[in-house]
Amino acid sequence: MTNVMTYPAVRRLNFGFDAQASTDKYFADGNIVFSHLVAILSAIFPPGEDIFVRSVRRYVDVIDDPDLRKRVTGFIGQEKTHGLQHRELNEQLTAMGYPTAWFEYLLGITERMEKFLDKQYPDPNRLPRIRRFFLGFTVAAEHFTAVWAENILKRPAVQAMMYDDEIRNLLNWHALEELEHKSVAFDVYRAVGVPESTRIRWMRFAQNCGIPILVLFSWLSIATTDVEGRRQPFRILKETVQMLRNPMWKGFYSDMRPFKKRDFHPDQIGTAELVARWQQELFGTQGQLADHLR
Ligand SMILES: [Fe+2]
Ligand SMILES: [Fe+2]
């Protein structure tokens, strides 16, 4: 099954994020752990997506297929816009007391090193191991995000958990575009001819360590910044269990499995109908976000 949109569309939007806005601090289901986790995700998206963009853009000149080049342009545009919007939300989250700037700073460390390498050795075939390492990471992370996006969009229970309308709108828009461009980095990876073992190793790491790392980061975030959370260790433990049982993670491990097959392709997972439905739901004439489009 192929995606409805061949070229990922770049949509410029206006969300109503405001560093002065007063919104419920525990905007995710009233759950402290879940709210910190969503804040961390929002914090790491912009530098993470910058890594994805650099990893793919590096190979643009060696891609012969004009169709794939156009899709890469759409992919870069979408990821760049996600970063911009999440940075706006992150300012609001910082004002609400979340340590978003710290997480963004920590993940941004690779940027200097990558920019130095790209300047010093512009030929992507130089130092291929490092470059392919980043592309493999991107491809595995894109699958991780696509599985997540599908869960967010197809489960009404997850939709009902987001108390803040604009945060829910941002997550839905981001999830939709993740599905629209889910196979672009993968097709670049194949076009470049990186061995399948690199992406499979990355997926093994993401599958085994992704959720535990996010839980640890959430606890760290609470321990360092959240007085109310620190005072209630039993609530934190209980909410961690609740958060792990969240429908957002349903089938997560089994959905990672096919990626580890050597003949896997993201379009083997049929999300075209879900994408078409949400394109209408969000950006159709009566769409929930039609008035957000610039
Ligand atoms: Fe994104
Ligand atoms: Fe993406």
Automatic annotation (TrEMBL):
<dbReference type="InterPro" id="IPR016516">
    <property type="entry name" value="UCP07580"/>
</dbReference>
<protein>
    <submittedName>
        <fullName>Metal-dependent hydrolase</fullName>
        <ecNumber>3.-.-.-</ecNumber>
    </submittedName>
</protein>
<dbReference type="Pfam" id="PF10118">
    <property type="entry name" value="Metal_hydrol"/>
</dbReference>
<dbReference type="GO" id="GO:0016787">
    <property type="term" value="F:hydrolase activity"/>
</dbReference>
<keyword id="KW-0378">Hydrolase</keyword>
